[in-house]
């Protein structure tokens, strides 16, 4: 295999991994935190109410990130029996993760703008270039990854958050029928992935939102 290609892949991984780890950690932590504030201690008792990314990594989701640039974390456990209004509360819990990714992407974009505004057009020394070039690339990648994670998780395919959101919005009878798709979620996901539908649905809105957040700055 071409060494240049290997170096390119490794470089891309080093630049994107921090954004991915930060994104899935904030995503899952927010699920657990919202559930905890609504009276469910399950995530806290399971040690998942933490910002330690190791606690949230899913082996298969991480491997897929390495291969395809998108992945997922271990779902935070939730105990609906602790919730006063399970259907409504689960809707907020599900929304929490994608919302956190979009907020994080916005904050990272602000940092990106701040760095470019502070150093753009200046004559930088070798040390500043050595630090700022990879830092800006990592932040830019983190913005894109967090936008992508939000959109990906909003897809109405089990076990993604979008499926729970749809179930929470549907009338109980229709929600019950919709939830019968749960066992087939991964099959549906891989069919969408292999046919290119997944990229078609995710990439355009990701490009659009990322472009808005980073507009005019590369």
Write down how many β-strands occur, each being a DSSP E stretch of 2 or more residues: 0
Largest sheet: none
Helix content: over 70%
Order of helices and strands: HHHHHHHHH
% residues in beta strands: under 5%
Return the structural class: mainly alpha
Total number of distinct structural domains? 1
Uncertain stretches: none
Query: How many helix segments?
Result: 9
Question: How would you characterize the overall build of this protein?
Answer:
- This protein has 218 residues and is mainly alpha-helical.
- The two termini are 31 Å apart.
- The chain has one domain (3-213).
- The mean pLDDT is 88.
- It is globular, with a radius of gyration of 19 Å.
- The protein contains nine helices and no strands.
- α4 (86-119) runs antiparallel to α5 (126-153) and α4 (86-119) packs across α6 (161-169).
Give a short overview:
By secondary structure, this protein is mostly helical. It is built from nine helices and no strands.
What is the secondary structure topology, with strand pairs?
Layout: H1 3-37, H2 42-45, H3 59-68, H4 86-119, H5 126-153, H6 161-169, H7 172-178, H8 185-194, H9 197-213
Features:
218 residues; mainly alpha; 0% strand
